[in-house]
Each structure stands twice: as C-alpha cells, then as structure tokens.
Design brief:
The chain is mostly helical. The protein has one domain (about 15-440). The protein has 15 helices and 7 strands. It has helices at about 40-45, 55-60, 65-85, 90-130, 130-145, 150-165, 170-195, 235-255, 260-270, 300-305, 310-320, 325-335, 370-390, 405-410, 420-440, and strands at about 15, 25-30, 35, 340-345, 350-355, 365, 370. The strands form 2 sheets. Strands 1-2-3-4-5 form a 5-stranded mixed β-sheet, sandwiched between helices. A hairpin with a 4-residue loop joins strand 2 and strand 3 (about 35). It is globular, with a radius of gyration of 22 Å. The structure holds zinc ion.
C-alpha cells in the first residue's frame, strides 16, 4: 500500500494553503484527533514549517468543542459497527445501514465544521499577519531557535498563510465577518465567538441509531433526516452567523470591557442555547468543553487533558531548542493543539506517525495504552474508508486492503510482522460481502 499525505480521510478537512504556488496543505482529522503534514508543506516552507503552528493550534483547540466531539462520537460508532460486521457479530444489512448513516452524518458535520473553522482561521491568520509586532516577535524568536532559518522566509510564510487561508465562496464571506469582529472588538471577543459557534449543546441521544431510513441522501443543507442528531444545532454556519450578531450586539451595548466569561454566557443566552431540557443529562448547564464526562472520548479528551501547562511547555521548548521547523510544529501540535497523533515524513523521505508522547503510554481503555487505542482506531478508520470507497466505486475503488500502519513503517508496523495481520486477512476474506452490503446500504 502506497501512502500519500495528507492521508485519505473521508471526514478530515484541509488547513489553509501554506504557499500560493503549491498545493501544500496540512490536514486535520477531527475524528481521529490527528494532524497530517504532507512533504510538500515541508518543501514549500523549507525551514519555516513552524509557522504552521498558528493554524494547527487553532484547529486543535476547536476540535475540542461539541462539533469536534460529535465527529469522534460518530467515528467511534462507525468503527465499532465496521468491526462487528467484520467479525460477523452484526447482521450485514443492518450494520451497513448504520455505517451509511454515520458516514452521512460525518460528511454533513465536516461540511459545516470545516466551513466555520476555516473561516475563523482566515480571520485569525490575516489579522495575525498584519500585526507587525507579533510577526517581529515570532520571526526573531523562531530564527534564533532554529539557527539556520532565514528570517525573511518566516515573514513571507506568515504573510502567505494570512493571504491564502479560507478563500472562496461561503468561507470567504463568513471569514470577512469574523475578521471585522476581530478588528472591532479584539481577540477575546473573537475567540469567544468561535468557541460558542462550534460548541452547541451536545446530545448523545440517538448516536447508536443514526438516521438511515432513506438511501437517497437529501441535500446536505436541508434539515433532512441525515443531519447529525448529536448536535442540537444542525447548521453550524447559521449558528456562527447568529453568534457574530450576538457578540456585536453585546459588545456595542456593554463595551469591550465585559469579562469574557460573562460575554460567553451572554452570547449563549442571546442565541437561545438551552440551559436544560432536551439534552442528555450530562450536558445540562454547560458545553462539552466544560463537561468532559459527557462522552467517553479518550482519543480526543486525553491529549487535551495531558498537555502541559503553557509555562511548562515554554520551558520545555527553551531547553530543547527545537532545531528544526518540523520539531517545532510537532511540539505545538501536542503541547498547544492537543492532537493525539501527527503523521509526517521522516528526514530522508519515509513516512511515519507519532502518537503524542504526553499520553502514548497512558492506559485509557480496557487498560490498553493510548497509542494502542489510537493505532487501532486509525487502522479501522482506514479500512472502513477503503470499504466505503469500494462500495461507492469512487476514488480508490480498487484500493488494496492493506495495513495503513505498515504503509507508514519502514518495514512492518509490529516490528517483525504486521500487528494487524489477522485483522487484515479477515477483512480481505469478508470484503466482497461487506462491500455488497455497503453498496446497497
Ligand atoms: Zn501493519
């Protein structure tokens, strides 16, 4: 199995262009809480790859909202169903309908979550790139750390990111509105608006029963049966626009000195977020971000909980010095972004993956380590994507069913042999029946 970055994730979303003259992009998978950095990003930015820390930290933080958690809930349910189908524990037809339902819900989530997140990124990056003091500080600090990095290249990379993020269509108009909010009311109000927009009250009722009644998928933006039920608000873009209005109203009334926690509560009240009623009990009176017990989502929650305090991270950076942009970027992904894993290219060209060292050996589920749970989820996710692609007869329709971790390894993923060899063999045996079921699901 060849491996291409960013890895093929049916439900990831691309971060902004890193360069205007290449198509180099990083990709975030909210469902796997992973970041994929293609070699072209490295090539395009050369030693200044660390500037990608801005979008990486931004995207990682927003993955922790209810919208990001909903990704993980659907991904986990989809993976569990696929595993049951492979093992013969689940009737194929019923399992296939559930998988299709989760897949459609994830696609709808990706569309809305990606739109709002990219719009916020665009506003944030364009604002940052024009802040001369910040760019000076960053370029000086980073060039000092990296030693061999040209300061001019760093400035250019920041400017390019600021220009290139989130252009086009629906993202551009929303991004312009968020940018205006930043200009008028500052970073605190902007951050609050982004958090609330992506953090509707989360209900996990019905997660095991996705809307799958109709094979014909209605329009993505219709309030039809395939909207993700785990979100109280179906359309995150519409919610984002209402949040913008509410923040502007509140800020105009009360001035910019309102404590951010108060603004947060005011905005939620203004857009009608319920304090209780109709929600899963654990979500009452708060968002997912403050109600971590609402859902058992170790792949998402554990890295955020385990990342070091900012001060500790800074000290760590000082002591290590991060001699390369890639090391800097990965440190930011784990320490500030809270990602569970990064897929990247080794020096010399081989692909690789690294599970967050802050949680890799923690026991998170049935005493399995975080690294083992993440790797199993990654393998299942990739196999499920291959099976769905085959069923759709779309891109990758004849894709080999190989171990995706072996494709990332210099030899095999388990050392002497593939750690998932038995699983892969079973999937290959069952593939025709699974694909048939999914094609008619
Ligand atoms: Zn393997």
């Amino acid at each position: 199995m060849s491996f291409e970055y960013p890895f093929h994730d049916r439900h990831g979303y691309p971060l902004p262009r890193a360069s205007t003259d290449t198509d180099a992009r990083a990709e975030v998978s909210p469902g796997l809480n992973a970041l994929s950095v293609p070699p072209r990003v490295h090539d395009a930015l050369e030693g200044a790859i660390g500037v990608l820390q801005f979008p990486v930290v931004f995207a990682g933080h927003r993955s922790r909202t209810a919208a990001g958690a909903a990704f993980r809930l659907h991904k986990r349910a989809l993976g569990r169903t696929v595993r049951a189908m492979i093992d013969g524990d689940d009737p194929l037809e019923a399992g296939a309908r559930r998988v299709r339902g989760h897949d459609r819900a994830l696609t709808a989530l990706q569309d809305n979550f990606g739109t709002v997140t990219r719009a916020g990124l665009h506003a944030f990056l364009s604002w940052l790139a024009e802040d001369e003091a910040y760019v000076d500080w960053y370029a000086n600090t980073y060039a000092g750390n990296a030693g061999q990095t040209d300061e001019g290249a760093i400035r250019e990379a920041i400017e390019t990111l600021g220009r290139g993020a989130g252009r086009g269509g629906r993202v551009a108009s929303l991004a312009a509105d968020y940018r205006a909010l930043l200009d008028r009311h500052g970073l605190g109000a902007f951050e609050t608006a982004m958090d609330v927009a992506l953090d509707p009250p989360l209900s996990i009722d019905g997660i095991g029963d996705p809307p799958v009644e109709s094979k014909a998928a209605p329009g993505r933006h219709s309030a039809g049966a395939d909207a993700p039920r785990v979100l109280a608000s179906r359309d995150l873009r519409e919610r984002a626009e209402r949040v913008l209005d509410a923040v502007t109203d509140r800020a105009n009334t009360a001035g910019v000195d309102v404590p951010l926690a108060t603004l947060h509560g005011d905005v939620r009240a203004a857009i009608g977020d319920p304090e209780d009623g109709g929600l899963a009990p654990a979500t009452v009176a708060g968002s997912w971000a403050t109600q971590s017990a609402v859902a058992d989502l170790p792949l998402l929650a554990d890295p955020h909980a385990a990342r070091p305090f900012d001060r500790a991270a800074r000290d760590h950076q000082d002591s290590v010095g991060y001699p390369t942009g890639k090391a800097w970027l990965m440190a930011q992904a784990f320490e500030a972004g809270g990602f569970g894993a990064v897929l990247y290219r080794r020096l010399g060209g081989d692909p690789n993956w690294l599970v967050s060292p802050y949680v890799a050996s923690d026991a998170v589920h049935d005493s399995d380590s975080y690294a083992a749970v993440w790797e199993r989820a990654f393998v299942t996710d990739q196999l499920a994507a291959s099976l769905l692609d085959r069923a759709d007869d779309a891109r990758g329709g004849d894709r080999a069913l190989d171990c995706p971790l072996c494709a990332l390894s210099t030899d095999t993923c388990g050392g002497d042999a593939c750690a998932f060899a038995d699983r892969i063999a079973t999937v290959r045996d069952r593939a025709p029946a699974l694909v048939d079921a999914l094609a008619s699901g």
